[in-house]
Amino acid sequence: MLLFVFAPIALILYDSLFDVEGAFTFSNYAHFFTPVYMRMTLSSFWYAFLITAFSLLVGYPAAYLLTRTKHKQLWLLLLILPSWINLLLKTYAFIGLFGTYGAANAILETLGIGRQQILFTDFSFVFVSVYIFIPFMILPVFNALEELNPSLLDASRDLGASTWTTFRRVVFPLTLSGVKSGCQAVFIPALSLFMITRLIAGSRVITLGTAIEQHFLVTQDWGMGATIAVFLIIAMAVIMLLTGNRVRTRR
């Protein structure tokens, strides 16, 4: 923990206290609260929210159906199998699919819609991000649904509840821990995306992750890049606290 968690965080905090000239300063923190970085922060949270929301909208029904199909472990393996492939390879695969002469535009042209600019758009960025993160949403929701006691569903039906009422009053509240875990697993890494942002969205989507990449690799302003990373760490810690499962004790 000291070597791989606390030491890197301490180094980031240390680097954030120096400017590009190497002089000790707190100006990086003041600079972070300028309109430019505030817009980046709002943009990062907005896109992370969209990615998490779409992952939940697709992932929860998928996990629910998985628990009610035969050979569900095999289907689950097939769903998480793409997550074993290198992220860069998957990103480049989508560049080919969404390109001007890619498969997506070929289908649109066959349907008579014509070729469209799919790549380097907000749609392509969110779509690819959801595709990459959705296994991390399905797995915790699937585990929560598997642990659900079937007798509770039978009791709900016996008491006259409809399918929707059973889901709203019984299934979803009892699987909320899996939903929270899935949202954590998607939202937190989505906040710091930079490679997918750069390759799929181009310059249309600017997030804190791409700003950190630019400061460390292009402008060589490690202090400002570390300062952004500090605020990302704080934001992630707050999100984990808000979405964590609280254990209530009674006397």
Please tag this protein with its features.
cell membrane; about 75% helix; MetI-like_sf; mainly alpha; about 250 residues; membrane
What's this entry about, in short?
This protein has 251 residues and is an all-alpha fold. 73% of the residues lie in helices and 0% in strands. The radius of gyration is 22 Å and the shape is globular.
Description of the molecule:
Residues 41-243 form the ABC transmembrane type-1 domain. The chain is mostly helical and 251 residues long. It contains 13 helices and no strands. The longest helix is centred in the first third of the chain and has 32 residues, at 35-66. The model is unreliable at 247-251 (pLDDT under 50).
Tell me the total number of β-strands: 0
Low-confidence stretches: 247-251
Number of helices: 13
Q: How would you state the average pLDDT, rounded?
A: 90
Structural class comes to mainly alpha
Order of helices and strands: HHHHHHHHHHHHH
How many angstroms does the end-to-end distance come to? 34 Å
Q: How much of the polypeptide forms β-strand, as a percent range?
A: under 5%
Helical proportion? over 70%
| Main sheet summary | none
Describe the global form: globular
CA-based gyration radius: 22 Å
InterPro entries: MetI-like, MetI-like_sf
Membrane topology: Multi-pass membrane protein
Main location: membrane
Protein name: ABC transporter permease
